Amino acid sequence: VPGLFVCTAACDPIDPVGTCGPGLSCLFTSDAGPGTDCYAAGTAIGAGACAGGQACAPGYVCVDQSDCLAWCRVGNPNDCSGAACSGLLSAPTIDGIQYGVCPPSSPGP
Length: 109
Fold this sequence. Notes:
The protein has 109 residues and is mostly beta strands. Helices cover 4% and strands 28% of the residues. The chain is built from 1 helix and 7 strands. Strands 3, 4, 5, 6 and 7 form a 5-stranded antiparallel β-sheet that branches. Strands 1-2 form a two-stranded antiparallel ribbon.
């Protein structure tokens, strides 16, 4: 639509509370980013915990319409309690930082 403007919240997927508030998640507005916005969140965490949508707890994302995994920054060893952060095929990026997910056995940051 010509002339249409949409506002989004520049939030942190790993720690959405600061911008979004309690009970809300920060997700990318497109697969590759860089835009993010606040969305309703669920409470699910871990393998087999979601079927897509917004079932995952804040700081988590539903991967492969199955697992609620913690967001992390690719290459940052502190985000997944020592485990490697796995990049996503879409390679979502904010300010040159690529985001991915922690393994199902890792609690995240």
